[in-house]
What does this fold into?
Amino acid sequence: MRHLHLAFAVANLETMVTQLT
It folds into this structure.
């Protein structure tokens, strides 16, 4: 299930960016 992993990675990245800003 690569799609699920990709979606999770994108969500995690967004969360990281939100926390950083």
